[in-house]
Amino acid sequence: MAESPPVKSAPVRAPANAPGRRHTPPTGRLELRHLLKWMRDDGMLAPEEADKLVRRFGNSASGLHPLQRLGGASLVDVRDGRVLDTDALARWLAARFDLPYARIDPLRVDVGRVTEVMSVAYAESRRALPINVNATEVTVATSEPFDIGWVPEIEAFVKRPVRLQLAHPDDIARYTPEFYSLAASVRSASKTTGASVANSFEQLVELGKVKGQLDANDQGIVQVVDWLWQYAFEQRASDIHLEPRRDMAAIRLRIDGVLHTAHQVPASVMNAMTARIKLLGRMDVIERRRPQDGRIKTKRPDGAGGMPGAEVEMRLSTLPTAFGEKVVMRIFDPGTVDKPFDALGFTAAEAERWQALMGMTHGIILVTGPTGSGKTTTLYSTLKKLATEQVNVCTVEDPIEMIEPAFNQTQVQQSIDLDFATGLRSLMRQDPDIIMVGEIRDLETAEMAIQAALTGHLVFSTLHTNDAPSAITRMVDLGVPPYLISATIIGVLAQRLARTLCPLCKAPDDSGDTAKMLEELAQPWKLGGRLRPMKPVGCAACRNTGYRGRAALYELMPVTEPLKDAIHPNLDVARLSRQAMLEGMRPLRLAGLMKVAEGLTTLDEVLRCTPQWAGK
User: Fold this and answer.
1) 461 vs 489: CA distance, rounded Å
2) Per-residue H/E/C for 439-489
3) CB–CB of 394/435 below 8 Å?
4) Which pLDDT does position 108 carry in this prediction?
């Protein structure tokens, strides 16, 4: 790793993308007086205001980067009234001198490779941080784009050209210690666990111990696992995937429904990380041949996304693969799972119809959609609204997603033959008013749910189907007679989660093509009002993806009398869909198109996450 040689020891030669095509900058570190002069020259500041700022700041040393000092001064661009924060100033500076500008995205940085380009002391002294290394060049982010005397030294060390990018000073200050600390922990773990992990496992097997002192407790492994959790919380991840490979293992995070590679670690480190996570989850560390499930409770650290100090539960699942155990940690954040009913995202018409179904005294209400579509959030929010002191709400779940004091929750345990059907059969003797069955997977469970509905109970459950009408055909496929379906099912709600555009950086989509496609895809419906499609841009808040958060799309199908007449042994799902739409059902894709028309998401996102409606 390159140390910190004196700057004068190498000739000064600018990198290939050195600034200066539009304006000729000074050499060396950025100074406040230079920034203020350029801002005045570009008409961003009035001359008298620039002079006032020179007198205000002077040349006093505060430890802050000049862009940070000006960004915190509440300046406003006199040309258009924009607030000139640090990010806006950095983007202006990059554009002025034809430099690429980049917000560092940790999800796309191979920390192990980039930290080998230069030492942490060298990086901190130059306010520079390598962010990409490939066969042809090294990309270095810097908050000092004109201080380039060190570039030839690094080019000689890595034997390839250096490409500079201007970066936000806060990103450089934050990620430099974070990247190097993580890389040091991984390297330390690699050295100490490569041979000793196998030895520890062999010793434990010989001694007949189920749990013992593994290298999972090595300080380097502890730091890597703690960093991983903190990083996942900061990134608003819903799942953490640890995926073993032949040589290097991958760590991936699911953010807003999309997987991103966060880091790669040696296989030996992944083994030790898996062992530590299994220890914390009270799982059998020695058993690696069969799948296992577990849970971990932890707290958000200060500075992580959400409320600092809030308790977070993670559900663990391991699966044997060709190169070791794959681990998935699903993060159950109370702030995400436990939403108020009014925050679910129903339209006024949908909310009215859903509450009408909630007010029924008996019947089955199904919520459908793939894994991760928000079914649990919808059910928990609905049940919490119904769980008054006058009713008995009981659930059978696999697993219990979140402990809720207002419910009586039962965990399915296959090892003792307590499945959904058995649990539901037992709940019938517990004097329930409202029952929630985690999932109807087989005919026995479906029959028990129907029996509960016929005996005067309101039953909620889930199915894995693409849309609401398909839930009826799924019940028929399970073997439920159509006359029992029409007698008990009172409504089906299908849903998806679509990524929403970042409110801070989205821009109007003025091409006209999107509006035209919206109208074509919505046929035979008409999208009322003015179409306001937007497009993703990317900024610091959304990690340059253009999307931040997700919104629910709903397809609500109350089972009315005309629909009951359409449920028969020769059921046609297309005919059922058309009849449901005549009764007022709005397809999932149409719900998504309306979100696009409102400027909340994009057409690509809606087409990605919603099926074409069966009646078209």
Assistant:
1) 11
2) CCCCHHHHHHHHHHHHCCCEEEEEECCCCCHHHHHHHHHHCCCHHHHHHHE
3) yes
4) 76
- Residue 104, classified by CB atoms within 10 Å of its CB into exposed (0-12), middle (13-18) or buried (19+), is buried
> In angstroms, rounded to a whole number, what is the distance separating the alpha carbons of residues 409 and 422?
14
**Mean pLDDT computed over 352-359:** 93
Query: What distance in Å separates the CA atoms of residue 425 and residue 44, rounded to the nearest whole number?
Result: 73
pLDDT at 391: 92
**How many Å apart are CA 31 and CA 15, to the nearest integer?**
21
Q: Is 558 helix (H, G, I), strand (E, B) or coil?
A: strand
Confidence of residue 163 (pLDDT cuts 50, 70, 90): very high
Most confident of 56-65, 73-82, 342-351: 342-351
- Ranking 220-224, 288-292, 383-387, 395-399 by mean pLDDT, the lowest is 220-224
| 23/95 Cα distance (integer angstroms) | 10
What length does the chain have?
616
* Predicted structure pTM score: 0.72
Rounded distance, CA 463 to CA 456, Å?
Answer: 22
Specify the DSSP element, H or E, that contains 266. Answer: strand 258-266
CATH 3.30.450.90 domain locations along the chain: 194-335
CA 481 to each of CA 434, 472, 560, 582: distance values in angstroms, whole numbers, following the listed order: 24, 11, 18, 25
End-to-end, the C-alpha distance of the chain in Å comes to 62
Which pLDDT belongs to residue 260?
87
Look over the chain and give the mean of its residue pLDDT values, rounded to a whole number. 83
Residue partners of 206: CB distance under 8 A and separation at least 6: none
pLDDT value, residue 193: 47
Name, in order, each residue with C-beta under 8 angstroms of 477's C-beta and a sequence gap of 6 or more.
none
Nearest to 329 by CA among 343, 313, 351: 313
Contacts of 62 (CB under 8 A, 6+ apart): 69
Residue 354 has a CB neighbour count (10 Å cut-off) of 21
- The CATH T-level fold of domain 338-499+550-588 is Rossmann fold (3.40.50)
The CATH architecture that domain 194-335 belongs to is 2-Layer Sandwich (3.30)
- Contact (CB, 8 A) for 609 and 370: no
List, in order, residues 6 or more apart from 31 with CB less than 8 Å away.
Answer: 59, 66
